[in-house]
Prior knowledge:
Blueprint lengths: L15 E7 L5 E7 L22 H10 L4 H5 L17 E3 L2 E5 L9 H14 L7 E6 L3 E7 L6
Parallel strand pairs: 4-5
Antiparallel strand pairs: 1-2, 3-4, 5-6
Amino acid sequence: MFEVGDPARIKGEGGTMLLYLVDREGRLTPVLRPGPFPADPGSGTGPASKAPLYDTPAGFALSALLRGPTGAELAASLHTELPLAFAPVRDPERKDGLLTVTLPFPVTALSEAARGQIVCTVAHAQPLDVDARVVLAGQSNSIVPAQECPVPAS
């Protein structure tokens, strides 16, 4: 379990998404990035006005997370404990109250922080009425059982 203190008071809207990186002390830290969906769908301006690459905000956020931190995030002493993955990932699948995330690498050897990065990013990208328990599946038939994000959504 992570010691995270008070939850971050960040809420993504329309054209933003919430990803989780790791700070110097190993704590999960939410970061806000531009997202795939326009804040104003009728605006027709900027990259957000294009059709999203994924069917769900969780798929887009997961893909962004697996590409690693930006220069600004690195400068703020944030990092990822995930292997970088530029291969396409599928949207998380929802079944029986669980979200299954299939990744292009084995998942059983991931650190607790790395698992938390994925679980929190996917769980907080879903509508709030979804039971945000996430199963991780990866190469070599590796599976990490369902878990919840240790950082409350704000």
